[in-house]
Amino acid sequence: MALMGGGISQWLTHQFAEKREINKLRRERLEAMVKSLYAHEQWLEERFNVMLFGEGSHDRSSPLNEARMIQSLHFPEFSEHLALVQKAQIPLMQFVSDQRISKMTDQAEWIKSWKPDPYYEAYRLYRAAVDCFVEKARNAMVVKK
Length: 145
Prior knowledge:
Distance between the termini: 29 Å
Oligomer: single chain
Shape: rod-shaped
Order of helices and strands: HHHHH
Radius of gyration: 23 Å
Largest sheet: none
Helix content: over 70%
């Protein structure tokens, strides 16, 4: 009886430890994915500031690529939400590109016609998509027993 009790105890301990490690790894991957989304937000702001103030260059690749990689490998259920974030970034990128070209063409005219409102509206929609994604990730972090 003692041998069987010891064996069952070891097996249960192993099962609990394995489940805890799986949950920990899942949580770490979710955190890495969300962290890359916040890094992407900062990356977009840097692009805007480089365009606006003209200091430095912006050659760094998008951190959204890391989020896409983690999502593709580990969280297929997040594909639609990440696609919404990707779609929401397009107007921001387009605005920055258009403004940069306009600024290089005729800076004086660009200054007179500068209106950042479309960027701020697109940024609001982008943040809503990121917040929705983060909420889904937060809900996925709840440990299943």
